[in-house]
Write a structure and sequence with these properties.
By secondary structure, the protein is an alpha/beta fold. The protein is 43% helix and 11% strand.
C-alpha cells in the first residue's frame, strides 16, 4: 500500500511539474518579442537623475530595457561626473529607474572593492578593500565582514546586482587589468573558490545577486581587453576553470560574465564572448551551468575594434550569451539600445537567430529576476 501511495505521489508530482512548465511556456508565448529582446540588453548611461539623459527614459519605456549599470567616472569625457554623487542621490536615481521599468530592473554595479569600486569614500560610502588583500589574509571572517559591508551598502541604495566576485586566478601578477589592479583573490584556484563562496553567500543574505567574472579566466593575460585583442593561447590553463566548476557544483552561481580573451586552443576564430565552443561547449555543457550568461562590455576595444555591431551581436547570441552589455563608457552611443534592438529583430527575420533561442534567454533572465529585490 505504501509503495502504491508513493508511486501515485510521484505521478502527481510529474503531472504538476508538466502543468507548471506548460503554463510558464504559455505565459512566455504571450510576451511580445520586442519585450523579450529588450530584456536581453543592459546599458550604461549618463546622468545623476533620470531627467539628465532623455534616452534612458526612452530605452526603458519604449524598448523594455532589462538592465542598467552605474559608474562614477565618465571615461569618454574624462570626468568624475556620471551616476554617483552621494548615497541619497544614488538611491533616488535607482528608485526612479525601477519605477520606469515595466519588469523588474537589473541595477548593476562593479563594487569589487579596492581599486575597482564605484561607490567610493569621497562620495560618502565606506572604504573597501581589494580581493587580493582578502586572499592574502585568507581569513574567512575578514572576507565575510567586507562582503557584508558591501551588501548592506548596495541594499540601502536599491542596487540589486553586483558585478563581482572576480574569480580569475592570479596566474600573472603583472596582468594590467586583473593582478595589477589587485582584483584576484589568489594564484591558488582553491583559495579563489573559497573566498568567492563566502562572498556570494554573504551577498545572498542581503538579497544581492552576484556575477562571476571573467569566464573562462582572464588572470593569465598580459594585456588589457579594454584596449584591444588579448591572446591567452599560450598562457591560459584549465586550472582557471576550477573556481567556476566548484561554485557551479555548489549551486551558488547567479550569473557568469564572459571575457573578451582569445584562446586558439578553445576557439580558433572568436574570443570567448563570441565563442560557442567556450560559452556553450565549456560553460554550459562541460561545467553544467544553465543560468544567465552576461557579456562583458561589447564596446570595449577587444570587440569594437575587431567586429561590426551586427557581427558582435550575432556571434554573442550564437555563442550562448543571454544579456548583451553596452557600458557606454569606452565610447558613448545614446542610440545603442535602438540599434541593438533592431539588429536582433533583423537576425530573427533572416533566420540567423531563432525565436526559440530568444525564448531560452528570456526564460533564464526572468528566473534570475524573480530573485531581485
Amino acid at each position: 500500500m505504501k509503495h502504491l501511495l508513493f508511486v501515485v505521489s510521484i505521478i502527481l508530482m510529474l503531472i504538476s511539474g508538466t502543468s507548471c512548465s506548460q503554463s510558464q511556456a504559455d505565459q512566455n508565448a504571450e510576451v511580445p518579442l520586442d519585450v523579450k529582446i529588450g530584456q536581453m540588453l543592459k546599458i550604461g548611461f549618463r546622468g545623476m537623475q533620470v531627467a539628465d539623459t532623455n534616452h534612458i527614459i526612452r530605452d526603458l519605456e519604449k524598448y523594455h530595457l532589462g538592465g542598467v549599470v552605474l559608474f562614477d567616472y565618465d571615461l569618454p569625457r574624462d570626468t568624475a561626473y556620471r551616476n554617483i554623487e552621494s548615497p541619497e542621490q544614488v538611491k533616488k536615481l535607482v528608485t526612479d529607474l525601477k519605477q520606469l521599468a515595466d519588469k523588474p530592473l537589473i541595477v548593476a554595479i562593479d563594487q569589487e572593492g579596492g581599486r575597482v569600486a564605484r561607490l567610493k569614500p569621497k562620495y560618502g560610502f565606506p572604504k573597501s578593500v581589494s580581493a587580493e588583500y582578502l586572499g592574502s589574509l585568507d581569513n574567512p571572517d575578514s572576507t565575510r565582514y567586507y562582503a557584508r559591508q558591501t551588501a548592506e551598502t548596495l541594499s540601502k541604495l536599491g542596487i540589486n546586482v553586483n558585478l563581482a566576485p572576480v574569480v580569475d586566478v592570479n596566474v600573472n601578477s603583472d596582468n594590467p587589468v586583473i593582478g595589477g589592479l589587485e582584483r584576484s583573490f589568489s594564484d591558488n584556484p582553491q583559495t579563489v573558490a573559497k573566498h568567492a563562496r563566502i562572498y556570494i553567500k554573504t551577498l545572498h543574505n542581503h538579497d544581492i545577486l552576484t556575477v562571476l567574472k571573467h569566464f573562462p579566466g582572464h588572470g593569465s593575460s598580459e594585456e588589457d581587453s579594454h584596449l584591444g585583442v588579448v591572446d591567452v593561447t599560450d598562457t591560459w590553463s584549465r586550472k582557471e576553470l576550477i573556481p567556476y566548476q566548484q561554485l557551479i557544483d555548489s549551486s551558488l552561481v547567479d550569473a557568469v560574465m564572459t571575457a573578451h580573451i582569445f584562446n586558439a586552443k578553445l576557439d580558433s576564430a572568436y574570443p570567448a564572448t563570441l565563442s560557442k565552443p567556450t560559452i556553450t561547449g565549456i560553460l554550459r555543457d562541460s561545467l553544467g551551468f544553465d543560468g544567465v550568461v552576461i557579456s562583458d562590455d561589447l564596446m570595449m576595444g577587444a570587440i569594437r575594434k575587431e567586429y561590426g555591431l551586427k557581427t558582435t551581436i550575432k556571434q554573442a547570441l550564437l555563442a550562448g550569451v543571454d544579456i548583451l552589455s553596452f557600458a557606454n563608457n569606452s565610447i558613448y552611443d545614446p542610440e545603442i539600445v535602438p540599434k541593438a534592438h533592431r539588429i536582433i529583430n533583423e537576425l530573427i527575420e533572416e533566420g540567423t537567430i531563432s525565436k526559440e533561442r530568444i525564448d531560452r534567454s528570456y526564460d533564464r533572465i526572468m528566473e534570475f529576476k524573480e530573485r531581485l529585490d
